Amino acid sequence: MTELNFGTHSDVNNAVSVTDPGSVPYMDLRPENFSQIVSSSKQLSEGSDWIVQTPAGLFVHGYKQVRSILRDQRWISVLSGISMLDSLESTASDLNILFERARRSITDVEVSSSFNIRPNVLSVEGDDHKRLRKLVNSSFTSKSADRLRPFMREHASELIDSLAKNSTSEIVQEFCRPYPIPIICRLLGSDDKDWELFDYWAEVIFSALDADTDSVISRLDEISAAQKELDNYIKNLIHDRSIDPKDDLISELIQNQVDGDALSSDELIAMVEALLLAGTDTTRNQLGATIAVLADHPEQYSILRERRELIPAAIEESLRYIGAVRTTARLAVEDINFEGKFFPAGSTVLLGLHAASLGETEDDDGYVFNLLRERECPHMAFGSGAHHCLGAFLARAELQEALSVFVDTVPSIDLVSPVEWKPLSMGIWGPSRLEITFKGPSSKKLYKAGTNRESKSVFVAGRVSDRKEDQLIQDSSKKRSEIQKSIPHLIQRPKFPPIKRLLTTVFKFSRAIIIWKLIDSRKEDKTKKTFLYRRIREAAEGLGPTYVKLAQLISAAEGIFPEPLIAECKKCRDEVRPESWVTVRKTIENELGPIDKIFSFIDPVPIAAASIAQVHSAKLVDGSSVVIKVQRQKIQDQVKSDLKVMAWLAPKFVGRIPIAALTNPPALVELFAETICEELDFQLEVSNLFEIERALKSNPKNTWELPIPNLDYVTSKIIVMSRVGGFSLGDANEMEMNADRVSAVFRQMVDGLLEGAVIHGIFHGDFHAGNVFLDTDGQIGLVDFGITGRLNGDRRIAFLRYVVGLMTGDVEAQIMGLRDLGAFPSDTDVQTLIKDFQLERDDFDPLEMSEEEFVEEIQVIVRDLLAHGARIPKELMLFVKNFAYLSSVIQNLSPEMDLLAEFEKISSGFFTRNGLRVATEVGFSVTSDDISDQSFRRAAGLRDSEKTLTWDALQKRRNETIQRIPVKSVVDELQGRT
Quick check: helix, strand or coil at residue 567? Predict the structure, then answer.
């Protein structure tokens, strides 16, 4: 077996790593039909690079590069990678080793993660693959295919003769679909009458390749049932042939031996099923596509009828021009330097078989269909290298005989309705409906099949990054690293802090506490705490942007800080008096130059004014409507001064105030400095915007509106960009949304946040009323990308492991993920922590405990958290902060939403879209059957007998729990420990 040498790193020399931000051009490829596929492929070929980043992942489209990767043993099939992982006896305890085996993405393109993979020629590599090919190659020669040609021709003739009796016929269902399966049945030795069963199984099982995850999820039960039925059928057939061999392929495969070696039972079943499924679906789709493209080229069809010797050339040209299989995926088993690019071990690339074939022509245009080419154009329809299609001879013979019979019978291909195509999301693609007339052209309007390249203009499928955008992302990555390196110096405790700012800070907070003592301290215990935190919050707002941002960060730390403080910090409004137009104008001109050369209009009254920047509506001289985000003057100096004050004060609070015990004040200042320093550079914000946009668009079922920056007018202090419309999500009550629409918005927001964090390693870190919008059509808009969560390398894998554990009820995986994310020291013993916190306690409701038991439980939890060195990492804090905001909004919109049902839908969608990647990166595969709401129930204290949990019910439980928390005893416990 080929080893996956993940975790080792070779010398990258001068190669550019494909994992570096902006190192690979980005294209948002979203073609709507085949002609757009051809046009966008041509656009790709005219670019300067042979690889691009797409929403589906890295996409290689150069012919030479695709062929080289297919022939390079360091690149293995995705199925092989998953098989290797499945062969490991993996448990949660060895995840630390397993996650080192994968670093990069796996896109769900070749097989659904819902199925176990038997060893077959697609799922093994190296010596195992050579062994299987050696055992079966003799059964898949051109001679073995030629022996079936008479039956192919006879079968095709019967089908087409039956169709010719009608005035019109639907070719896909009546010719292409029923054509290949009886041939496969004849080859295998199964009953010809069973072709309808095979047809059904192939159709259902291959629907698992659809990139439309909602569609796949809705059919999972049917897919699983079809797989089981097929398994049983093949097992029985093999059993019968083992006892009574016939002159057929199964008997031959059973008897084939090389040096005493033969196929195992599992290998035999896998081989037969692969032949049946792949051989059926690819052939019928390719046959339909060939007829469709000939319908668009009547002059070439006429030549084909006159010169039947061109039939093989027509098949090869159709395979090249409109292949049914457009992509395949490969996984790097070690670090690879390839043509100036560095691919870390575990990198996955999509190979554009179709795009590469279109671009590989020397003398004429490869982006047109031409069966009269002087030179034969190579294609990748059957792959290349070790995994070259085993059934290529059979497929060619089938297609040639079917087309020959069709050409003999049909004088011209006259479409009587538009050709309907399968969704482009399908892994194996072709027409779904193709209706022709056998009576020749009439006065009735005839149609085209839509297989020609669009000629009006060069098609741009979605958004294409230019060099300026990619360079900005690269430069921002370097700048971000420099900022991180500067943080320790910036927050180093100064010998003498900025005296004036220190005095102002101490005065405002001292004044707030004194007023509280004089006016509010004699109120009831719970009430007086609320008033204290209100006074502190008001003081923070009065001190300006640094303290406002700090309060907003604290608002995310639920469970760490007291609930009344969290509630007050959530009220901290980042709205301040705007700077004067004179000051703003000066900033714009200093950054961009004379205003009248760029803008025809700028509204001097801002549409929003916050602590760091304000936003003005404007128009460019070309008439485009835009907004201008302008940084406040002197804000950078003020923030740096405030950070120095915080750095000087923070150590004084260690061990002195109970709420500081779990957060470590100096560490909190460091975390805060990282966040706000990046927010002060608007070029970093634009880079964040581009990267988050790419992450969000990787899920094609969701649409988002994000600002479009004008890179000619972006500096560290200015952003000129389009305006995002709609209502603030917090005002969505005015839109009177129904429950289904609210659920859809909730799932989309969670999907974007979740997959951004654990799959792409980047997410918007500042959801609040001013940053999230919703238009009347339900499209979600996001603005303000200054605060962003980033999870690189092992930290992203750790967060992914935590989420997988959460969705499957695996407590050990959750704690491992949190530990490796930084919530606990790296040497924390996971099993001890689980035991101390009783984390595997199921069917437990804390509200059923007595008052004394509840108090003791809280004290033990706090004591153990301190003993284990618990802290909250920045990314987790931002993630929780976002989810808290989203939860509060959705709760108001749909208080009766069933959270358990939503949890299942979100989890199912996540694993369906990302199952292969999850399997590769955390070391085990997860299916929809593994989803469990047990962790959700534990967190909510929900008994197993409860079948639903609404927002209202959750909030009531939460409020009751908070009311029972004995603040004084917990404070005493904290002070005793610190």
Answer: helix
What single-letter amino acid sits at 125? E
Query: What is the pLDDT at residue 457?
Result: 41
Distance CA 175, CA 156 (A): 8
> Does residue 98 register a pLDDT over 60?
no
For residue 660, what pLDDT is reported?
45
User: Alpha-carbon distance 220 to 205, whole Å?
Assistant: 9
Contact predicate 21/117, CB 8 Å: no
363 phi and psi angles, rounded to 5 deg: -100, -25
> At 312, which helix (H) or strand (E)?
helix 311-321
Assess whether pLDDT exceeds 60 at residue 567: yes
The answer to whether residue 109 scores a pLDDT higher than 70 is: no
CA distances for 743 relative to 165, 443, 756, 775, 952, angstroms = 52, 51, 19, 16, 15
Residue tagged 């109970």 (tokens): 658
Q: For residues 153 and 401, what is the distance between their CA atoms, to the nearest angstrom?
A: 6
∠ CA(556), CA(562), CA(564), 5° rounding?
A: 90
Task: Name the β-bridge partners of 27.
Answer: 464
The band of 424, judged by pLDDT with boundaries at 50, 70 and 90, is confident
CA distance 143 to 786: 65
Identify the residue whose tokens are 């509630």: 567
Looking at residues 366-386, what average pLDDT do you find? 86
Tell the burial category of 901 from Cβ atoms under 10 Å away from its Cβ (0-12, 13-18, 19+).
middle
Per DSSP bridges, beta strands 327-332 and 75-77 are antiparallel
Token pair belonging to 596: 């009248």
Residue 222: C-alpha distances to residues 227, 229, 396, 930 (Å): 9, 11, 32, 18
More confident residue, 689 or 570: 689
Report the helix count and the strand count for the chain, using DSSP H and E: 37, 25
Backbone φ and ψ of 53, nearest 5°: -95, 130
Question: Which of the two residues, 362 and 510, has the higher pLDDT score?
Answer: 510
Q: Where are the beta strands (DSSP E) in 185-326?
A: none
Q: How far apart are CA 284 and CA 168, in angstroms?
A: 20
Strand-by-strand arrangement of the 727-728 sheet: 704-705, 780-782, 772-774, 727-728
Partnered with residue 435 across adjacent β-strands are 170
Handedness of CA 701, 704, 708, 709 (dihedral sign): negative
DSSP string computed for 13-72: TTPEETTSTTSS-BB----SSHHHHHHHHHHHHTSS-SEEEETTEEEE--HHHHHHHHH-
Task: Give the SS3 label for residue 442.
Answer: coil
Q: What whole-number distance in Å separates Cα of residue 298 and Cα of residue 366? A: 19
Q: Give the confidence band of 861 by pLDDT, cuts at 50, 70, 90.
A: low
* Length of the chain measured in residues: 978
pLDDT in tens, 47-89: 768 999 988 889 999 999 999 999 999 998 876 665 555 444 4
Name, in order, each residue with C-beta under 8 angstroms of 469's C-beta and a sequence gap of 6 or more: 22, 26, 690, 711
User: Is 632 in contact with 586 (CB distance < 8 Å)?
Assistant: no
For residues 505 and 487, what is the distance between their CA atoms, to the nearest angstrom? 22
Task: Specify the pLDDT at position 650.
Answer: 84
Answer yes or no: are the C-beta atoms of 434 and 419 closer than 8 Å.
yes
In tens, the pLDDT along 923-966 reads: 666 666 788 888 878 777 788 888 888 988 888 887 777 666 55
The tokens describing 656, both together, are: 């002195």
**Helix extents (H) in 777-840:** 794-808, 811-821, 830-837
Burial class, 525, CB count within 10 angstroms (exposed 0-12 / middle 13-18 / buried 19+) = exposed
Residue 810: how many CA atoms within 13 Å on its side-chain side?
Answer: 23
pLDDT of amino acid 118: 58
